[in-house]
Write a structure and sequence with these properties.
295 residues, eight-stranded mixed beta sheet, 11 helices, 8 strands, binds guanosine-5'-diphosphate, nucleotide-binding
Length: 295
């Protein structure tokens, strides 16, 4: 991931790195290159503009023009700004209730079911929690089966009511079951459509209202670039979710979603998905991601 962006940024900094003494024109040209590289990586244009404006202000403020190593100084400023663009600090899950409730949202194919399994597995193995997965996709019987397959891979039970079409009821029953059987975390996988539609939004908004989750996570395929950002905005306007999960960062993504989403929806990216396997999940660290981008 980010190979293209990394290469482009490296090339942008080359001029500055080679110069003993640099001029305002060198800096301006480098920043123009950086902005183009960001746009080509599918970063939202407003985000890219604000980014380079901020870097410029900082560079001039820190006297980059008279610095001994102006190239390195610029790289450091860009690094810190990239990290801050992606949220600065890693954001944690806040699981308070007993049982804690996590609601997944997102379009079909974004990776919700896979991520529900990955998160259950992570909470179980790393935090010694005792999760229960809940199948609330009542439209596609295959979705229920898929969650069961995931559950059996990680040895986490899956609550289903195949005959019931009322997701609010299913979720409330699952929470009762969790209380009765001692599961401390309920992870609710929901239905998604191929595009945002009112019925789906009504359903998940009502589900959120009903179960009052500790965390509502929005799962999105990072390969969809600008669309990922637009979908995030639509879901956030409706659901006011708590965090974003960026999936498929192992694929041929240009990285724009990772860089724009935080600014556009002002919600943190909490996790990333880096493969189809249950272990392919990472807590999102803006700082480490900035390291990766700058190579
Ligand atoms: P849902 O419809 O939102 O529940 O999406 P699924 O969980 O069924 O995922 C859709 C497809 O994406 C499946 O083939 C998954 O194996 C795949 N997938 C999910 N997450 C990742 C990921 O992080 N990386 C890759 N490469 N594939 C993923």
């Amino acid at each position: 991931m980010f190979e293209n962006l990394s290469d482009r940024l490296e090339r942008s900094f080359k001029i500055l790195k080679g110069e003993g003494k640099i001029t305002e024109i060198n800096v301006a040209e480098t920043l123009k290159d950086v902005r183009r590289a960001l746009l080509d990586a599918d970063v939202n244009y407003k985000v890219a503009k604000t980014f380079t404006d901020t870097v410029k202000k900082k560079a001039l403020g820190q006297n980059v023009l008279t610095a001994v190593k102006p190239g390195q100084m610029m790289v450091k400023i860009v690094h810190d700004e990239l990290a801050s663009l992606m949220g600065g600090e890693a954001a944690e899950l806040h699981l308070e209730q007993k049982p804690a409730i996590i609601l997944m949202s997102g379009l079909q194919g974004s990776g919700k079911t896979t991520f529900s399994g990955k998160l259950a597995n992570m909470l179980k193995t790393k935090q010694h929690r005792n999760p229960l997965l809940v199948a609330c996709d009542v439209y596609r019987p295959a979705a229920i089966d898929q969650l069961k397959v995931v559950g059996s891979q990680i040895d986490v039970p899956v609550y289903t009511e195949p005959e019931n079409k009322n997701v609010n009821e299913i979720a409330l029953h699952a929470i009762q079951e969790a209380k009765a059987k001692g599961y401390d975390t309920v992870i609710i996988d929901t239905a998604g459509r191929l595009a945002v539609d009112e019925q789906m939004m009504d359903e998940i908004a009502s589900l959120k209202e009903t179960v009052k989750p500790d965390e509502t996570l929005f799962v999105v395929d990072s390969m969809t670039g600008q669309d990922a950002v637009n979908t995030a905005k639509e879901f956030n306007d409706r659901l006011d979710f708590d965090g974003v999960v960026l999936t498929k960062l192992d694929g041929d993504t240009r990285g724009g979603a990772a860089l724009s989403i935080r600014t556009v929806v002002t919600k943190p990216i909490k996790f990333i998905g880096t493969g189809e396997k249950m272990e392919a999940i990472d807590v999102f660290h803006p700082d480490r991601m900035a390291d990766r981008i700058l190579g």
